[in-house]
TrEMBL record:
Residues 8-81 form the PRC-barrel domain. It comes from the Archaea. SUPFAM superfamilies: PRC-barrel domain (SSF50346). Pfam families: PRC (PF05239). This is Photosystem reaction center subunit H. PANTHER family: PRC-BARREL DOMAIN PROTEIN, PRC-BARREL DOMAIN-CONTAINING PROTEIN.
Amino acid sequence: MDDTPQEITSLVGREVYSNNGVFVGEVEDLRLNVDGETVTGLALGNLNTELFTDAARGGQGVIVPYRWVRAVGDVILINDVVERVRQPDEEEDELIA
């Protein structure tokens, strides 16, 4: 990833896609570790209803761990969220509703 410093607010509003090209959602907010001065998660809204049926219908968002982020540009690419979402029992601690 590019190590050029950016304003963290510039991430808000960007679309998030899996590295397979599947739309996941849109960044609405960030989870921060203030002491460590790092972003620890992306709070997504406007979710792909095929991936997040319950959360999308309930008007809720999801938080994906920032360690899933592979690249940040005009859009944000994350690891294979499709498989992680479809296997919630195995990845329960990874995806926080």
